[in-house]
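Question (not urgent): is this output format expected?
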Amino acid sequence: MSRVLTLIDPDTLIGREFIRLVDEAGDSSVEVRAFHTSTDEEHQVAELAGEASVVIPMKQPEDLEGSSIVIVASDDPDADLGTVKDFATLNPQIPLIFAGNVENFGQRALPVGAKTREWPDPAWLRIAHPCLVAAEVLIDGLTHLGIESVAITALEPVSAFGGPAIEVLAQQAIARLQGQAVEQLIEGHTAAFSTVLAEEGQLVEDAAIFWPNAQTTVTRLLCGSFHGHLTQVTITCEHAVDRNELFETLESQPMLALAEAPIGTDSVIDANQIITIPGPSSTDDRHLTFTLMVDGLRIGGALTALQLVDSLT
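Got this back:
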């Protein structure tokens, strides 16, 4: 039976990556159609199924009829999603997945990784931040250790704020190298050659949903790199952990790729796994540290959305 995946705003970084992964999967039972939310009435052009396709503006809820799942890949927090909301309200049983940076939808969707722990009503799901999705994969394999607390530090690149932010970073770098004042900012900051302590936003609330039985803290840093997410994770366990058993557990997780330092975030581009570098334990072997590196356009982005689609159908 054919599945119709309706993609909203396919010409974003997440949208293009999602289409690319669907094409690579080569599933003939999946049909992708697309609409854009731009106020411009003109049609846009995007690559669908390996070919240039016309993407028409979304005008009314009926445009989305026939969808098996709707994926929102918009990277503009203020994108006009009124039509999507109208359709979702009329069709609460059809899953709606937010894979982009959307803030003005109204009701907050449930944050999820590659799978759902509960089925919300209405069926609105939001792909969580890459740091949480990566940490979830790691921690899911370690729950038998009796985890008491989770501390996460997320270092995210400017690509987390969409394609236009990448161009802004390049202009910031040029201005700083030439000794000029930086005029264009990213989330109100100069990211070029800098690291910014950013607001956590909804990360703390989302982490509490992911790990309701553990004490959770999250710190978020914006770093002056174009791409590649890095996450520091520290977990505290009930009892001392045997390092040999820990490595055996990590090696058994297919989404984790164990590595050693030194390694850079440029090594994760287009990767479908989470590069995992275990750090030293505390002297009592109860506190474990890990560095996780992911391609945030995939992990916590397009790949996670596709994995979620597969789990829903």
